Amino acid sequence: MIWDGPSSSSQYIHAFARKANALKRWLSKAQDAQILKEPLNLADLLHPETFLSAFRQRSARALQRGIDDLKLVTSFEDQVITGDNVITVTKSLTN
Question: What is the domain extent for residue 35?
Answer without folding.
Answer: 9-90
